[in-house]
Amino acid sequence: xxxxxxxxxxxxxxxxxxxxxxxxxDMIIEIMDDELIPLPDGATLVGLPSTKPVALDPESGEMxxxxxxxxxxxxxxxGFTRLALPGYVKTDKxxxxxxxxxxxxxxxxxxxxxxxxxxxxxxxxxPENCDKKELNTKVHDFIEKYPENRLYQHLSNCALxxxxxxxxxxxxxxxxxxxxxxxxxxxxxxxxxxxxPDDSGFVAPQTRMNFRPRTDEIVQIMMEHLKTxxxxxxxxxxxxxxxxxxxxxxxxxMREVRSRTDMGYININxxxxxxxxxxxxxxxxxxLMRVSTxxxxxxxxxxxYKPRAYTLANVEKSMIYAAQQGVYTSINYLIFPGVTDRExxxxxxxxxxxxxxxxxxxxxxxxxxxxxxMELIPPARGELLGMKQMLQIFREELPNxxxxxxxxxxxxxxxxxxxxxxxxx
Length: 425
Hints:
Elements: E1 2-6, E2 12-20, E3 22-24, E4 27-29, E5 36-38, E6 44-48, E7 51-57, E8 62-65, E9 70-75, E10 80-82, E11 85-86, E12 88-90, E13 102-108, E14 111-118, H1 132-145, H2 150-160, H3 165-172, E15 176-178, H4 215-225, E16 232-235, H5 247-258, E17 265-270, H6 275-283, E18 288-293, H7 298-305, H8 312-324, E19 328-335, H9 343-356, E20 360-365, H10 370-376, H11 387-397, E21 402-404
Parallel strand pairs: 15-16, 16-17, 17-18, 18-19, 19-20, 20-21
Antiparallel strand pairs: 1-2, 1-9, 1-13, 2-7, 3-4, 3-11, 5-14, 6-9, 7-8, 7-12, 9-13, 10-14, 13-14
Helix pairs in contact: 1-2, 2-3, 4-5, 5-6, 6-8
Keywords: 4Fe-4S, Iron, Iron-sulfur, Metal-binding, S-adenosyl-L-methionine
Domain Radical SAM core: 180-350
Protein name: Radical SAM protein
């Protein structure tokens, strides 16, 4: 498996002699054959600025760095779990890599391979399945139909500008669509993709919404999307803060929508720290809840999320309540090679899943500058087991928990009973 690298103009090459290496957190590691899969459809190769690639010279057995070149990483589509980072060293220690999840990529048998494992069916979330011409037409149609709805205006930029698939789905009327509601947040996430302090050194890849939507604006989007039994509408998007800070309008919108239709699923993507607000949203008829977390250990969680007036214990309390009320609960697990696969992290997450009656773990590759992240979080306390073994342990220890990558709907026997709809028996 040969090194893949780029020149300063972004042209990508494979090295005829040097072998590829990877990183696990801040350690350079060898790549195993069973960690490699062909580069998936929808993946993107990118150069890592201010880095140089590190490789193995098979003749001398020594590591070498290619001066004047850039390391190359792959950005994976949803459905694929990263197992290792690209092998590199920084040429500028102060430079922070853009907020993406970089995976190691190699050249093998005449094609690109990546260190990854498929954890879900990627078909629905393959960007290539989003018809741009149809999307443009639908955006135009909805804005023309609802000219006073600021949410459709906001989502049009997410769909067309950021190429966000969830917001695109809102216009295309398929699968899981998003409805952002909050401009504020009760956490100060180190890797927030919608808002960064001026001195963070990061550039947020999205712009956070700057208005509070009206209930009728939310209801319009929900009613347009919830038209099939399998449709999902989700509060809590990358372009907003914490949706439960706007619990009042969420509850009002949910009650109005459920008075008109019992079709589809209502989901919230949340940090679940505002337990009283989550209770109200659950009681209004929530079907699915996906909780974002990076760890089940307090010190690691607090270092990344910087929670304001809540703790990981509040998150757990919210999840237990939701599960007891029949909500299908999952976690949006932000994973990182060399951290998530630490022995203590795995043990803590398994116990957390058992205590909360978790149904689904959505493995999501953490978008972060590796050096900044490693400086932020506590050092390892136990053995490093590797990402592939971590996935195997989760499957063995949590046989009733789905290990996936994106939102699933619950099996028929686990679906929450919908509230009665006005005019229906």
